[in-house]
């Protein structure tokens, strides 16, 4: 059995399609849990009497630890396989997700929020697992679709968590207990997802890494696994160019998830529930926009090769930067939402286009490549958090981010492939298997 050369969307009959569906579901649950606190911040702010600086610290903490975990999780996938890595992350991540519901002070809330950031590394495993399951002609679409549908968990959290709190309050639960009970839901979902992932997935089309290695089968996706994969990836300049572009698209996406609801409440005086719905519209674009970015990347590559993928990414980054400037200067709620949807479309498509390039950077160090570039997204989010803390004004921060994103688009142009790299054409001869 080899890599699948098509996506049979409504099938669970092959390991490739089981991995496809379970990996986006696991990522959805992790993303939901990662950002479940964000739309509840207006309530939590009042509960702990948080200052603007403390809120900024919480937003930074939410994404900071993910940098380290993403760097580690990629090589771990090479060493132990994505099945074990994902199951372990889901089980470990559920602990702080449940723990944050029992916070009694700003300090304890900050601590658990920091630890919750580890579940953001789920993205790297998602991209890794689909990369080893699907052939070059569809891998961009597979990566982008699973990431996009998983990313939508952040948007769903923005809309569902306030409604869940409202429902609990209608049942007589107080404000103080409402958000705490609501935050138990994503933790329980993570435990359920861990059991499903362990039971129904395997590491690659041929089986699980440990069993294959025991049988003397060479695993293509890792140079002995672990840190050898990381070192190889770190020596490739294209990895660092995409590290920057991913910081500028996914980093901005995370930043918007963290500040959107409270920005609409403070800047446009929307209600708690209305702000959640407005913020959710940004995240829900991931349902199709990220997949669209990967799909277009596959199509332009089929017509003109790998370098066309990089050029497409450049165009999408420009659209994101200019749209972000528009959003920052919107003078009304309606204008802000329209601008957010426009720049959000380019942001999600740029994320999909970035990871449509990842499988072709170095196939023998896939875990290291995916981990470093994925960490770039969180570096961007942390940098945006510090920028907002330093400027002290969300609107000015958004304007500055728009300028920086536009400049960072040049890094996409710098990603070039040589003739020996350009194997991104028709399906490889040894990969002619449909899923």
TrEMBL record:
Stored Pfam families: MFS_1 (PF07690)
Origin superkingdom: Bacteria
Family annotation (SUPFAM superfamilies): MFS general substrate transporter
Protein's cellular compartments: Membrane
Principal place of residence: membrane
Membrane topology: Multi-pass membrane protein
Transmembrane region(s): 21-43, 55-73, 85-103, 109-128, 149-171, 177-198, 239-264, 270-289, 310-328, 334-358, 365-388, 400-419
Name of protein: MFS transporter
Species for this entry: Herbaspirillum chlorophenolicum
């Amino acid at each position: 059995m080899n890599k699948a050369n098509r996506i049979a969307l409504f099938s669970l009959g092959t390991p490739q399609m089981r991995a496809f569906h379970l990996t986006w579901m696991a990522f959805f649950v992790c993303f939901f849990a990662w950002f479940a606190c964000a739309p509840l911040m207006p309530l939590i702010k009042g509960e702990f009497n948080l200052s603007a600086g403390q809120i900024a610290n919480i937003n930074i903490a939410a994404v900071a630890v993910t940098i380290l975990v993403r760097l580690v999780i990629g090589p771990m996938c090479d060493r132990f396989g994505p099945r074990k890595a994902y199951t372990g992350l889901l089980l470990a991540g559920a602990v702080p997700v449940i723990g944050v519901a029992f916070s009694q002070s700003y300090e304890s809330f900050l601590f658990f929020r920091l630890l919750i950031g580890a579940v953001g590394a789920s993205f790297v495993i998602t991209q890794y697992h689909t990369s080893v399951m699907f052939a070059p002609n569809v891998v961009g679409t597979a990566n982008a679709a699973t990431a996009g549908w998983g990313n939508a968990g952040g948007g769903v959290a923005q809309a569902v968590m306030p409604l869940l709190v409202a429902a609990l309050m209608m049942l007589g639960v107080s404000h103080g207990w409402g958000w705490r009970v609501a935050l138990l839901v994503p933790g329980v979902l993570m435990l359920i997802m861990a059991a499903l992932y362990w039971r129904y997935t395997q590491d690659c089309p041929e089986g699980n890494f440990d069993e294959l290695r025991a049988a003397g089968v060479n695993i293509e996706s890792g140079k002995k696994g672990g840190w050898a994969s990381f070192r190889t990836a770190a020596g490739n300049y294209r990895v660092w160019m995409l590290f920057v572009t991913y910081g500028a698209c996914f980093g901005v996406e995370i930043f918007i998830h963290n500040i959107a609801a409270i920005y609409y409440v403070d800047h446009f005086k929307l209600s708690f529930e209305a702000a959640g719905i407005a913020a959710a519209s940004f995240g829900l674009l991931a349902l199709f926009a990220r997949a669209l970015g990967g799909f277009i990347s596959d199509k332009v590559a089929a017509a003109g090769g790998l370098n066309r993928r990089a050029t497409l990414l450049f165009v999408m980054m420009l659209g994101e930067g200019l749209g972000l400037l528009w959003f920052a200067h919107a003078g009304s709620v309606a204008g802000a939402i329209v601008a957010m949807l426009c720049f959000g479309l380019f942001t999600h498509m740029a994320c999909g286009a970035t990871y449509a390039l990842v499988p072709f950077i170095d196939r023998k160090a896939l875990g290291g490549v995916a981990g470093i570039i994925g960490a770039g997204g969180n570096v961007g989010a942390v940098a945006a958090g510090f920028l907002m803390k330093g400027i002290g004004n969300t609107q000015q921060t958004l304007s500055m981010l728009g300028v920086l994103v536009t400049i960072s688009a040049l890094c996409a142009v710098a990603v070039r492939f040589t003739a020996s790299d350009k194997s991104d054409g028709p399906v490889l001869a040894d990969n002619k298997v449909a899923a």
